[in-house]
Design brief:
Chain B: It comes from Micromonospora globbae. Chain B: This is Sugar ABC transporter permease. Chain B: It is a multi-pass membrane protein. The complex is a heterotrimer of chains A (279), B (310) and C (430). By secondary structure, chain A is mostly helical. Helices cover 75% and strands 0% of the residues of chain A. Chain A has 13 helices and no strands. The longest helix of chain A has 32 residues. Chain B has one domain: MetI-like fold, CATH 1.10.3720.10. In chain B, helix 7 runs parallel beside helix 12, helix 11 runs antiparallel to helix 14 and helix 13 packs antiparallel against helix 14. In chain B, 49% of the residues are buried. The N terminus of chain B is likely disordered. Chain C has 430 residues and is an alpha/beta fold. Chain C folds into two domains: 181 residues, Periplasmic binding protein-like II (D-Maltodextrin-Binding Protein, domain 2, 3-Layer(aba) Sandwich), CATH 3.40.190.10; 195 residues, 3-Layer(aba) Sandwich (D-Maltodextrin-Binding Protein, domain 2). The N terminus of chain C is likely disordered. The chains are: A mainly alpha (279), B mainly alpha (310), C alpha/beta (430). Chains A and B meet through helix 1, helix 3, helix 4, helix 5 and helix 6 of A and helix 1, helix 2, helix 4, helix 5 and helix 6 of B.
Chain lengths: 279, 310, 430
């Protein structure tokens, strides 16, 4: 983006990147190391990175005790549904919010912010009551509904920002070329929105994947439990935990989001404005 | 299609839109409907109820009568020194985390937008904090800050800087900075991804044109990238600020508000008031007051930014 | 043209959302039970250690096999979220039938009317197994809010080799040290790079108030229906002694202040701390995590005027909204019979409240691995005034914990601590 960069500049860039990645990524190394450690090695005064006597016992325990496989499947179902629905709902709405200034739109955006601001703990009980009323308690559909509503504020705010970033002239140019509005949306707007949509889908997927409290109180049937709820069972009184199985389970719980993002991240660059316009 | 430089007939397009005003309005409502409907059901009612609770003496209990008390809660709240103290801590926390998060994330997003080697891998690693299950995050950071066997103190020990070893979460002066760092760590990926996505919208042509004009990298960043990114920056920083102000789960796991109340965030305060002591009415009043103050702060911020952008 | 297309797009999305709701409505949304068929009970358990989890599941499976007409569904909760989960499900009218929790927390729920009064639901046999002092911890306004079943006494776990090296003899299970002896021995065990004691004071209030009973420190006094916090010499004794160990004799580590019990383990196993005053359940970590060749011993509770401690037993309660209280009580009777209670206590490394269960457990384990000390400590556990006080949770979080943390960090004096605690009491106990 900054054109040619000197060799020194490049080296500095790599160093900075390395610094960032160590700061952000070291937990993965720690999870990996802990997941393979036997109980004795978890409480050393000088912890070592590489387990002295590596074991797979933690994985065995994690899976036999808590049926993490089924929980992961439940989570995957709920998270994918939330991600798809959030994007489907937010895309047209954010376009409307950004392109047509209306009182309703402003009110909606303001409301969305307000709903994020009020102490969440006070909203939990009424939401729970509503979902019970409409028969959505103890179902994955109820969870998906909450997650979509929950992700919408972010999705709307972000996507309308991205829509604003697309020069109106582009759309108008296209419609002058004889394209219908839907074609304009499909050919010009959505491709340009791709990075924003990726960010939104990722946000929605991960927040659903990691959400704990609603999954805990809304779903009663053990067979329907999601992954975070299953993982929490390795945590005990006063901050104690069965660290081995917890780390093993958490490692496996971290991977799907990373894989999801690995596939999506390409789209973070392909939607660049020039490319789309030149088509 | 053609590039935008060759498309000067904006005026004509603008004129052709005018008769469609009416249909636009219908279109807006139709476009907004699918998202407004669930929001209405699942957020408006609970929120209105929550706001109303702030004017009552609602308490936890089976078949408890609730009566309207008007401004009684707020009178009590004004004299609640503990709450205002925690509110100050909350502002410090939310501002600290949001600003650091934004600056660091912007730097990272710019790096990840370069044609560097291993860019894909780097991008994936950068979202690790986000992808990790929250249950394990708190435990992990406790182990990082552990005074005896923590990764941080162990690091200082190994490089021979034993003097820098501290009881990070237990010391009165380091506790708040320590949890702020955790907050920055936890929220950075999200901000980074959003900014990275935003950077894609910055037209390459503008950059190239600027580069041809001989503008320096900083100049181009300041006058091309930043303005184009402004809507996204405004949106993400406002949301980040709200989220940070509202989040207390991680801090609760790390310090439970201690030592000596140094990390008692206002949302944690409201949570305990509601869920631990059962004072729903008072907790809702705390919520109302916080909403009003934060909205006022945000309004100032948003108005300023929007004016700059226009 | 344009309009219809837009409408179609919007309509399609709307259908997607509404359809989701409809879909779910068709599915299994009801939590209403069938009118016929076996009674179904939901049991929310907090067992989390491998052995105790197994013990719980085994007992439930056995019950279900023997009682086809009363089926218990075992649901595993967790200690960190149990409170929020219960508040939400009680308020939402969706509580589990049987709830596992602890005495200090169920008082509020009982007073709010969410827990059934068990006094007439459980047998005299079970009542007789458990000391009145322990029953008192779960009795609020003459209503029994739960059956106490597991006790967590405070003992001292010590590094045997370091004791030997300092020439300190291990006291017998029924003859523990006095506080003076304990402090003197801690001093003997202190040298460069080694502290005699690590006081894990992450939750200082419970810890101090529990141990304060050693010196008859009550903190909460009720006269004529009014409760207030008073701090006299009896209340000051324990905090002062701990403070002395940290700052005067320097035999206790200041770094351990923010730690929970389990956080002190790396230092203990690494020889940095010689003794850990803490819960009997720490023995489990000793067995599972101590390095090879590490020798540990369980020392009896330390004695002040007495060895009395406040008991905060784990409890099993029945929800007031449960439709099958009688059947739930039947299950509790079975679940907590002496043999089963002993198995549950063994799984969690805690002390059973039942006398017979305790005897069985000592027989079962031969009193090894500190089970003799654990069994003996059961007699010390009783109710403390703070457990009965309305507003204790608020006083604890808002005033007592910050004040104690400041005192133990040497930021305020003992007198200032006393003032803050008393003033906090005035704010909360109105």
């Amino acid at each position: 983006m900054f054109g040619k960069t000197s060799r020194v500049g490049r080296t500095l860039q790599y160093l900075a990147l390395a610094g960032y990645l160590i700061f952000l990524g070291f937990p993965l190394v720690w999870l990996l190391s802990t997941a393979f450690k036997p109980p004795r090695e978890l409480v050393q005064l000088h912890p070592s990175l590489i387990p002295t006597n590596p074991t797979t016992q933690n994985f065995v325990q994690a899976f036999t005790e808590q049926e993490l496989g089924r929980a992961a499947l439940n989570s995957l179902q709920v998270s994918l549904a939330s991600a798809v629905l959030t994007v489907l709902v937010a895309m047209p709405a954010s376009y409307a919010l950004a392109r047509f200034r209306s009182k309703l739109g402003t009110a909606a955006l303001g409301w969305v912010l307000l709903s994020q601001l009020f102490p969440f703990v006070l909203l939990i009980i009424p939401i729970f009551l509503i979902l019970r009323q409409v028969g959505l308690a103890n179902t994955h559909a109820g969870l998906v509904l909450i997650y979509v509503v929950w992700a919408l504020p972010f999705a709307l705010w972000m996507l309308q920002g991205f829509v604003r970033n697309i020069p109106r002239e582009l759309e108008e140019a296209a419609s002058v070329d004889g394209a219908t509005r839907l074609q304009v949306l499909r050919r010009v707007v959505f491709p340009l929105l791709a990075p924003g949509i990726v960010a939104t889908a990722l946000f929605s997927f991960i927040s659903a994947w990691n959400e704990f409290f609603f999954a805990l109180v809304l779903v009663k049937t053990p067979e329907l439990a999601t992954l975070p709820v299953a993982l929490a069972r390795f945590v005990g009184i006063e901050g104690t935990a069965r660290l081995g199985p917890l780390a093993a389970g958490s490692l496996l719980a971290t991977l799907p989001s990373l894989i999801f993002f690995a596939f999506m991240q390409r789209r973070l660059s392909s939607g660049s404005l020039a490319g789309a316009v030149k088509g | 299609m053609t590039t935008l430089a060759e498309r000067p007939d904006v005026t004509r397009a603008g004129r052709s839109r005018r008769p469609n005003r009416r249909s636009d309005r219908t279109a807006i409502y139709l476009l907004l409907l699918p998202s407004l409907l669930p929001i209405l059901v699942l957020s408006v009612f609970p929120l209105l109820r929550g706001i109303y609770l702030g004017f009552t003496d609602a308490r936890a209990g089976r078949n408890v009568d609730v009566s309207f008390t008007g401004l009684e809660n707020y009178r009590e709240l004004l004299g609640d020194g503990l709450f205002w103290n925690s509110f100050k801590i909350g502002l410090l926390w939310a501002l600290g985390v949001t600003v650091l998060q934004f600056l660091l994330a912007l730097g990272l997003a710019l790096l990840l937008n370069q044609q560097l080697r291993f860019r894909g891998v780097a991008r994936v690693l950068a979202v690790v904090p986000w992808a990790m299950p929250p249950v394990v995050v708190g435990i992990l950071w406790k182990l990082v800050y552990h005074p005896d066997a923590g990764l941080l103190n162990e690091f200082f020990h190994r490089i021979g800087a034993d003097g820098l070893r501290t009881n990070w979460l237990g010391d009165f002066s380091t506790a708040l900075p320590a949890v702020i760092i955790v907050g920055v760590w936890a929220g950075m990926p999200q901000t980074t991804v959003v900014l990275l996505a935003g950077l894609q919208g910055v037209a390459r042509e503008l950059h190239e044109a600027a580069a041809v004009d001989g503008a320096s990298a900083w100049h181009r960043f300041r006058h091309v990238t930043l303005p184009a990114l402004t809507p996204v920056i405004v949106a993400i920083t406002s949301l980040d600020f709200i989220w940070n102000f509202n989040s207390f789960g991680l801090v609760y796991v790390l310090t439970a508000g201690g030592p000596g109340g140094k990390t008692m965030l206002p949302m944690l305060f409201a949570y305990e008031e509601a869920f631990r002591y059962g004072n729903y009415g008072y907790a809702a009043a705390l919520g109302n007051v916080m909403v009003v103050i934060i909205v006022a702060l945000l309004a100032v911020y948003l108005r300023r930014r929007m004016r700059e952008a226009n | 043209m344009l309009r219809t297309r837009f409408r179609r797009l919007a309509a399609a999305t709307a259908v997607a959302v509404v359809g989701l709701g409809a879909l779910a409505a068709c599915g299994d949304g009801g939590d209403d039970e069938a009118t016929s068929g076996p009674v179904k009970l939901r049991f929310l358990s907090l067992a989390w250690q491998k052995e105790s989890l197994q013990a719980n599941k085994d007992l439930v499976a056995k019950w279900n096999a023997e009682h086809p007409d009363i089926q218990v569904e075992y649901v595993q909760g967790d200690w960190n979220s149990i409170h929020d989960q219960l508040v939400t499900s009680f308020e939402g009218g969706d509580a589990p039938d049987i709830v596992h929790y602890e005495a200090s927390a169920i008082g509020e729920f009982s007073k709010q009317g969410y827990l059934a009064d068990l006094s007439d639901l459980i047998s005299d046999d079970l009542k007789g197994q458990i000391d009145q002092g322990v029953w008192d911890t779960v009795t609020f306004d003459d209503k029994v809010a739960g059956v106490p079943f597991l006790l967590e006494s405070q003992v001292v776990i010590a590094n045997k080799k370091l004791l030997d090296a300092a020439g300190i003899a291990v006291p017998p299970a029924d003859g523990g040290w006095t506080w003076d002896e304990f402090q003197a021995n801690a001093q003997k065990l202190t040298k460069p790079g080694q502290y005699g004691v690590a006081w894990a004071l992450k939750s200082p209030t419970n810890r101090v108030l529990n141990l304060a009973l050693n010196f008859d420190g009550k903190f909460f006094y009720t006269d004529g229906g009014r409760t207030e916090v008073r701090i006299g010499d009896a209340e000051k004794e324990v905090p002062k002694r701990i403070h002395d160990m940290i700052y005067t004799t320097k035999s206790a580590s200041p770094e351990a202040l923010g730690m929970s019990g389990a956080d002190t383990l790396p230092g203990f196993f690494g020889g940095k701390y010689a003794m850990l005053p803490g819960s009997v359940s720490l023995r489990q970590q000793m067995v599972e995590q101590a390095p090879e060749g590490f020798e540990w011993v369980t020392l009896p509770p330390v004695k002040g005027l007495s060895t009395k401690q406040a008991a905060n037993p784990q409890t099993l309660s029945i929800a007031e909204d449960s439709k099958h209280k009688k059947q739930a009580a039947e299950f509790l009777e079975y679940f907590l019979n002496p043999t089963n209670m002993a198995a549950l206590a063994k799984g969690d490394w805690l002390v059973p409240t039942g006398k017979q269960a305790n005897e069985e457990l000592v027989k079962l384990t031969g009193g090894k691995q500190g089970w003799d000390v654990a069994a003996d400590s059961a007699a010390d556990l009783t109710v403390a005034p703070f457990q009965m006080a309305d507003g204790y949770p608020e006083w604890k979080t808002k005033y007592a914990t910050p004040a104690l943390q400041q005192y133990f960090a040497n930021k305020i004096t003992l007198d200032q601590l006393a003032t803050q605690l008393v003033d906090g009491g005035k704010q909360v106990l109105r």
